[in-house]
Write a structure and sequence with these properties.
Elements (H helix, E strand, L loop, with lengths): L3 E5 L4 H11 L3 E2 L1 E5 L5 E5 L7 E5 L6 H17 L4 E6 L18 H11 L4 E5 L6 H4 L4 E4 L2 H9 L8 E5 L5 H10 L5 E8 L6 E7 L5 E9 L3 H12 L4 E9 L5 H6 L5 E5 L13 E4 L2 H9 L1
Parallel strand pairs: 1-2, 1-5, 5-6, 6-7, 7-8, 9-10, 9-12, 12-13, 13-14, 14-15
Antiparallel strand pairs: 3-4, 10-11
Helix pairs in contact: 1-9, 5-6
Bound molecules: ribose-5-phosphate (R5P).
Length: about 300
């Protein structure tokens, strides 16, 4: 395997440590200083000349700060002579604004892509993007990994209970994801919720369900932000006869009081990955976190 130097931004140090452990590579030190006005200064301590470097950063909240840190780390590595820089961004912030929804809006993802390319990042490794078209926005290689195999493992261990189970996409945008998972699970039945989100208030309404609702429903999504989508889907599923409802989502953004909302809704379990570090205060009894470090380290070994 090519020798790697791994650096961790501040956003997801525990994931970086797990990746380092899996690869038997110590995380290289970085000096990150914050000035009184909030500006950051980044300094690479080790010699990186001609080294293949990896930066691990989840660009979730505080999104702008985490992106800025990534930009500064990449710049420091490139200036210090790194041969290549791979950015492992398990959760890619700003991905949802990948086009203009309403006249006059910026396309945030394009802005991120141009900055990352300008800094000469060589490759991005990321997880469960909101749309499969997102890699096309970047003019550098984007490795798009998925947590679906981990969800499959989790569901397969409960084989005795797969009868009477339906996979559910909580919106039309997730149909592709749910079809893939259904195939991985031997054509498990699936259904789709038709949801409406008010772009001004953010309120979510589940309008209808396409497909048969069975006793046990597994809602599968790419991310949980406010939790409103999951809750709306769970409500309509329960109204249509589902008795046990589980949510599986790759990215636990958990904005605002999402943790409380999820703990108090009719869902019995919320399974997410560690693509975003979840602070203690946002963890709750129903939450189960599965790790993606092995998938990332296998990719880095290639
Ligand atoms: C939307 O299309 C996404 O796939 C998620 O369903 C959405 O971002 C979840 O957001 P929230 O938890 O705020 O409803």
């Amino acid at each position: 395997m090519v020798e790697l130097k791994i650096f961790s931004a501040t956003s997801n140090k525990s994931l970086a440590d797990k990746i380092g452990d899996a690869l038997k590579v110590e995380i290289s030190p970085l000096e990150i200083t914050i000035f009184s006005d909030g500006e950051k200064r980044v300094r690479v301590v080790d010699r990186v000349v001609e080294k293949n470097c990896v930066v691990i950063v989840s660009t979730a909240a505080p999104v702008n700060e985490n992106y800025m840190e990534l930009f500064l780390i990449v710049d420091a590595l490139k200036r210090s002579g790194a041969k290549s820089v791979t950015a492992v961004i398990p959760y890619l912030g700003y991905q949802r604004q990948d086009h203009v929804f309403r006249d006059g809006e910026a396309v945030s993802l394009e802005v991120i892509a141009r900055i990352v390319e300008g800094l000469k990042v060589d490759k991005i490794i990321t997880f469960d993007l909101h749309s499969i078209k997102i890699p096309e926005v970047f003019n550098i290689p984007v490795v798009h990994l998925s947590a679906l195999p981990l969800f499959t493992e989790k569901l397969e261990t409960r084989k005795s209970r797969v009868e009477n189970t339906v996979l559910v996409s909580p919106d039309m945008g997730g149909i592709r994801r749910i079809k893939i998972l259904s195939e991985m699970l031997g054509d498990m039945p699936y259904a789709t919720v038709d949801k409406n989100r008010d772009l001004e208030t953010g309120e979510v309404t589940a309008v209808s369900i396409d497909g048969e609702v069975l006793k046990r429903a597994i809602i599968v999504d790419d991310m949980i932000s406010s939790g409103k989508t999951a809750v709306a889907a769970a409500d309509i599923l329960a109204k249509n006869g589902a008795e046990e409802i589980i949510v599986m989502a790759t990215h636990a953004i958990f904005s605002g009081d999402a943790a409380k909302v999820l703990q108090n809704c009719r869902v019995s379990k919320v399974v997410v990955t560690d693509s975003i570090e979840i602070p203690e205060e946002k963890r709750f009894d129903k939450l189960e976190i599965i790790g993606i470090a092995d998938l990332i380290s296998q990719e880095l070994k290639k």
